[in-house]
Amino acid sequence: MPSDIEIAQESDIKPISDVAAELGLLPEEIEFFGPYKAKVKLEVLNRLADVPDGKYIDVTAITPTPLGEGKTTTTVGLSQALGAHLGYKVITAIRQPSQGPTFGIKGGAAGGGYSQVIPMEDFNLHLTGDIHAITAAHNLVAAAIDVRMLHESQATDEQMFERLMPKNKHGKRSFGRGLVGRLKRLGIDKTDPDDLTPEERRKLCRLDIDPATITWRRVLDTSDRFLRGVTVGRGPNETGHERETGFDITVASEIMAVLALTTGLADMRERFGKIVIGLDKAGNAVSCDDLGVAGAMTVLMRDAIKPNLMQTLEGTPVFVHAGPFANIAHGNSSILADKIGLKLADFVVTESGFGADMGMEKFFDIKCRYSGLVPNVVVLVATVRALKMHGGGPKVVAGKPLDTAYIQENLELLRAGMPNLLHHIQSARKFGIPVVVAVNSFATDTEAELELIRKMSIEEGGAVDAVVSRHWEFGGQGAVDLAKAVVKASELPSQFQFLYPLEWPIKQKIETIAREIYGADGVDYSELAEQRIEEYTRLGFDKLPMCMAKTHLSLSHDATLKGVPKGFRIPIRDVRASVGAGFIYPLLGEMSTMPGLPTRPAFYDVDLDLETGRVTGLF
Amino acid sequence: MPSDIEIAQESDIKPISDVAAELGLLPEEIEFFGPYKAKVKLEVLNRLADVPDGKYIDVTAITPTPLGEGKTTTTVGLSQALGAHLGYKVITAIRQPSQGPTFGIKGGAAGGGYSQVIPMEDFNLHLTGDIHAITAAHNLVAAAIDVRMLHESQATDEQMFERLMPKNKHGKRSFGRGLVGRLKRLGIDKTDPDDLTPEERRKLCRLDIDPATITWRRVLDTSDRFLRGVTVGRGPNETGHERETGFDITVASEIMAVLALTTGLADMRERFGKIVIGLDKAGNAVSCDDLGVAGAMTVLMRDAIKPNLMQTLEGTPVFVHAGPFANIAHGNSSILADKIGLKLADFVVTESGFGADMGMEKFFDIKCRYSGLVPNVVVLVATVRALKMHGGGPKVVAGKPLDTAYIQENLELLRAGMPNLLHHIQSARKFGIPVVVAVNSFATDTEAELELIRKMSIEEGGAVDAVVSRHWEFGGQGAVDLAKAVVKASELPSQFQFLYPLEWPIKQKIETIAREIYGADGVDYSELAEQRIEEYTRLGFDKLPMCMAKTHLSLSHDATLKGVPKGFRIPIRDVRASVGAGFIYPLLGEMSTMPGLPTRPAFYDVDLDLETGRVTGLF
């Protein structure tokens, strides 16, 4: 079989204007970015406000091997089957990948084989600049924090007052837009700065940020491990103000999580304003509104908020929008793309990051909670390979050849691994959603193996169906049976419910997820975690949903525990808050938020064919 | 008069497809980025190869006050006059501004009043992502450098060999694309890695970079002074490999200079490969080709190389492409935009950064040398205000009210300042190009003052004409007389010549510019500068043109010396090389390559009107 990039570059591709027209988008509702990408304006939601929503399908997976089990490929293949073979109007809604790892060790994120989003080079690099906009907005906040601390350290209250509210040429002062947020927070309702008392001036002008509490780092969309920890302020004019901090990869930014969870421009503006960057020396939260920077962030993100339209290899429409981390964030594409999609299509097929214990739980309890959308079907992707691993098969390591256990029939190993799949089916059912198991089939799988998965999924797991799918090799045609099963399941009534109510205390929410979804016996908190929970409760952030930052390689917090681990307790090392995005994220281990490059990075193979202008060597 | 953003947002704007069609671009030659921006494909150069070039006009200025003398506004106003009032086909070619300072203290860079490029929000923010692409490409190189040093420090020669050229599944090794450049440099012409001698393996696999010689920093398009100096590698897994470095603003990247000077994809690929990031421990240059990263850089920049099409307030076409620094780089927009423009239009009006001693000299000796294009006219922008300053007027400070000397008639002060203008006219004439002086007129200028400038420019300076222009207030209509003078001057024969030949030694080139253009008595070199000149000569970089990194606020190296300073010698503090871009840049002082934010940053005023979606407070 040809490589992914060969398949993608040889495919027939439609002008994106045709894809948009087929979807029923009006010409004035789209903005082109080259011939094969477009942004869709949010105004379409007003035009279609009265149209009933289509069916909402979430694609998730069992606990994967480090190789991944083909979730995006299945999402795309299923969509191709629904749209190009069964004649439904369908929209695929997936995340935009981070560009940095593309040049390191990671493969593309556009699906694979004959189930891909194209052009894959555009999908994997730059796209329409949304991630670049996040880099700009995020680092503007970081620059504002450090420079504000420097300026406050060098000025009296009166000097700060003079500089922040200078007299205009008529000798008049005004608060200006940048101070509106802070005035409101402080409960000062005066309109003339000259009426402020000295104490009010001090409060308004001096943020008094405690450097030790700053959680806002800087970001770059480059895999640069030397930026994980940096000392900033080493220039001669910043001497005495050096500070230890670091860079995360841009998709780990809270701004990315906001982009994914926002429901519109006004909501995004409000969320940016609420982002907490640290505390002041009295222990109060300091927000982007306090810094006066949330308006500029919104301006930088005003195009990024519009979903990006692309297409599959079979010409069905794809929304690519937002790509938050699946551990420290919720790992799901944007609410706005799904909302628009559900107005335009019979089916929206979206994907949740990592396994069902991570991405799906957050899809329901965070994304659907903020969107108000009701999902209809969960498609749970499983592979013979991963199930054998859960049954006790040898370790699967990326870049190493697979053990023969994985490429020869072994029903015993497979049966021993099935509980992982059954557990995830049960988890989905706890939310009241019917489950269709999609067995992403490889050439080495045997009929008996595939049949075993099917039978046990339905009979023991309670899946409404379980279907073998061969979309990688055959495109949409290979997923027609899966698509038919999904259509059927979508006609069942949805009895969707959240796992926990927001009013519960932080610990009760954490423990419910740990017990119900991970199968843990309980939760242990570090001293730091206890302190944070107390602090967030004091600051009023305890009514947010939980976004567990856990490994995806095990149902437990320990990546080496496969199958369905029993008799373990979840340790909470730290608890952090993304107040603007709207969740608390308890940390169950070390989460790397900045990848590195290997000795032989993927960029070694990448070049431009100067004759054809084509990208070569990208996967 | 309304503010710039009000004028811009209230203007009638044409779909960019109309602007492109009026220019004679074919639909398949443009790529849309929203309704008002498009990229122009380089293929248009093939189609129009046999069309004769239009006239090539460079807009430059006298030595400015810190407020700037309206060079971009004049460039746009002149274009509007030529295109919208005199009926010529005209293209304005200007630089893309850096986004970072937009949120600090800087005003917009889209012109002003009734001579602007629109939409000004798009012009000033993101545009089509070219600067973001540079950030990505630049920082990929930085990540590659640090991680390569780390990996080399932890591996034997054999391990490096194994990792860089692993056996494939057939047990066969290959060099792969990433090692091609280095093989060539080392003069190894073997095709099978297993045939390499141990010494060749070591040479090929070990770059042996000397950390003390690394000149490649990181970049961000954010004004973040705390990044001027940083220690990287402070994470626990990089302990022992910490390194002092820093960030520049993205437009200071050598990649930006390459973008501005390249003549096509193959040339850009080659220049990226030649970029020198530092030396190895034996004193050899280490290039991006040695790192194997130049192909990926080219892929990241494959869209950025296409010029961006926008429009003026009067609907004439504008190319916005590349924005290199005007001190450490050459400060001119791209060669490719000018080349395409000259095929499509009767006139290309382009702008050089800073005053004529800086931007214009580099336009001729660097940009025109690499492009092979022959300029026809220099438009030299002067203001009564700046000339009075040169005549000994009080200090002009941004943000402070102007002294009355500048707003009342004062012919004596003005006459005393005229030598600065006359000097710049003479400089342009040394290159064989006719000069038209454009007096950018303010409401407070008197007729007698304007007439004095006109008369002396022609009679004493030898300008072919000198015209008062009021394009800020009246748009193109206000610049019709200027446009007519430019048309007339463009009909004179061009006797264009460079100031120096490339074969001269580095010092002779520097001294020629210092004496002929700055009026210096001579040049003094620091010990460091002497060392660098010796080193660059040894490495074969001495045949490059010189790009002087000097203040723009004086003809000399000392910003406080106004008028035409005499009896001074130019000190060369350091000499650096942008080998990929293709110039040596001697440093005549400290050049800040990363701006900071003031206590009350411009972002304080910026927000999005949530009703209309319009940007507010941006200038």
TrEMBL record, chains A, B:
Keyword flag Transmembrane: no
EC number per UniProt: 6.3.4.3
Pathway listed: One-carbon metabolism; tetrahydrofolate interconversion
UniProt keywords, alphabetically: ATP-binding, Ligase, Nucleotide-binding, One-carbon metabolism
GO BP terms, alphabetized: tetrahydrofolate interconversion
CDD domains recorded: FTHFS
GO molecular function, one term: ATP binding
Catalysis performed (reactions): (6S)-5,6,7,8-tetrahydrofolate + formate + ATP = (6R)-10-formyltetrahydrofolate + ADP + phosphate
Residues annotated as binding ATP: T65, P66, L67, G68, E69, G70, K71, T72
Family (UniProt): Belongs to the formate--tetrahydrofolate ligase family.
Subunit structure: Homodimer.
Protein known as: Formate--tetrahydrofolate ligase
Protein source organism: Levilinea saccharolytica
Upper classification of the organism: Bacteria, Bacillati, Chloroflexota, Anaerolineae, Anaerolineales
